[in-house]
Design goal:
Layout (H helix, E strand, L loop, with lengths): L8 H18 L3 H7 L4 H9 L18 H13 L7 H14 L2 H13 L4 E4 L15 E5 L2 E11 L7 E7 L9 E7 L6 E6 L11 E11 L11 H37 L1 E2 L2 E2 L4 H29 L5 H25 L10 H9 L9 H13 L2
Parallel strand pairs: 1-4
Antiparallel strand pairs: 2-3, 3-7, 4-5, 6-7, 8-9
Helix pairs in contact: 1-4, 4-7, 5-6, 5-7, 7-8, 7-9, 7-10, 8-9, 9-10, 9-11
The structure holds flavin-adenine dinucleotide.
């Protein structure tokens, strides 16, 4: 399995404690939470206790002030246990919006609660009428006195049912496209006019309470505008996207590793025609290909992470990490499932969950077609 050169003793130690945490606090409940369709609040708080939620939040705001490498460790470990239902990634991205663009008052208000798990975060961009074309969002946040009046609806929102704090993408100027977009912070508790619709019935990611959200004449203070200037939302989203896409790449890598590990264990046990499935040349070649792709993906992601650290990761390179990583994830998992035969199709086998969870990776966070469009645009620029 890949040797990440950036991983020092402290990353390994953090990884060990994250792995122990998942073994003790997640694994015993994985089936129950899959049935429930959400992860209980106590799990979030326990993950905060060992430093997962606040790893990259500055110490001044209740976090550990560590580098994003520690978040990457968590993404890898979560994916390696074959889970993508716990919505840590969007929670984490939301904290980065606040650290990156929030006013001092906003950082003081929300970051400590996000680090402690008192608040769970969601990011609401997608609407029933628009996903890829983000500039076409219809939700409005119109200034009214010292408040914003919000109307609109969102769909497919990860953590939507349990979020206490939502980063809402809305138009403060509905007559403009990108320049009309702002990010408005929504505290959901007892918020009049806000409602969570049906929990969506998904083929995978079944532990997540992915939901529809509705805003009808919702009022929030003007100070909930992220940053201090309207119309910055699109820029703020674009600035954070390389990190979001890299996260999807690391999740893809962890899931592919998990698929390879569980498949190796299976093919070494299972026999056909008097020999192990592992002994057929086709199996050996497929597994060798998977192991090679995993190494290549890890090397590319690690290079992207180093560039991100130096503030040099371009949007197109992050797009490469997202599309190629998630495509590799889906390809590898598909081949690994095939090596399980009919058992691979049974829910009791991890490979089956990895398969259904993987599919959405090519869709959210910007579809893979949009990723290729971004890359092509950079190739076409003069
Ligand atoms: C499980 C799950 C969780 C999600 N979590 C969140 C979340 O937390 N927050 C959130 O805001 N959203 C979330 N989403 C929404 C997700 O980001 C969108 O579904 C995605 O961006 C695609 O938008 P769409 O579904 O409207 O598809 P569309 O934009 O309607 O696209 C349909 C198809 O057309 C293609 N297409 C569109 N435009 C182009 C183009 N210019 N060139 C080529 N092809 C194009 C797309 O690639 C796709 O294949 C989630 C979705 C799912 C399924």
């Amino acid at each position: 399995m890949p040797n990440h050169l950036w991983m020092q003793e402290e990353h390994h130690a953090f990884g060990d404690s994250v792995r122990r945490f998942f073994d003790e606090e997640f694994q015993p409940h994985r089936d129950q939470w899959k049935g429930d369709g959400y992860i209980p609040k106590e799990f979030w708080q326990k993950s905060a206790d060992i430093g997962i939620l606040g790893a990259t939040i500055p110490e001044a705001y209740g976090g550990l002030g560590l580098s994003r490498h520690f978040d990457a460790v968590t993404y890898l470990e979560q994916a390696k246990i074959g889970d993508s239902g716990w919505g840590f990634s969007v929670h984490n991205i939301a904290t980065h919006y606040i650290t990156g663009f929030g006013t001092e008052q906003q950082k003081e208000k929300w970051l400590p609660k996000l680090a402690s798990g008192e608040m769970v975060a969601a990011i609401a961009m997608t609407e029933p009428g628009t996903g890829s074309d983000l500039q076409a969002v219809k939700t409005t946040a119109i200034k009214d006195g010292n408040e914003y009046l919000i109307n609109g609806s969102k769909t497919f929102i990860t953590n939507g049912g349990s979020a206490d704090l939502i980063v809402l993408v809305a138009k403060t100027d509905p007559t403009s496209r990108s320049k009309g977009v702002s990010l408005i912070m929504i505290e959901t508790e007892e918020l009049e006019g806000f409602s969570v619709g049906r929990k969506l019935d998904k083929m995978g990611m079944r532990r997540n309470d992915t939901a529809e959200l509705s805003f009808q004449d919702v009022r929030v203070p003007q100070t909930n505008l992220l940053g201090d200037e309207e119309g910055q939302g699109f820029y703020q989203l674009m600035k954070q996207l390389p990190w979001e896409r890299l996260i999807l790449g690391y999740s893809a890598l962890g899931a592919a590793q998990s698929a390879l590990e569980t498949t190796l264990a299976y093919v070494k046990e299972r026999k056909a025609f008097g020999q192990r499935i592992m002994d057929f040349q086709n199996s050996r070649f497929k597994l060798a290909e998977a192991a090679t792709k995993i190494e290549l993906l890890a090397a590319f992601l690690d290079q992207c992470l180093a560039e991100l650290d130096r503030n040099e990761l371009t949007a197109e390179k992050a797009a490469m990490a997202k599309w190629w990583g998630t495509q590799m994830q889906c390809d590898i998992i598909d081949e690994c499932l095939q090596l399980h035969g009919g058992y691979g199709y049974m829910n009791e086998y991890l490979i089956s969950e990895l398969y259904t969870d993987a599919r959405v990776q090519k869709i959210y966070g910007g579809t893979n077609e949009i990723m290729k469009e971004l890359i092509a645009r950079s190739l076409d620029a003069d």
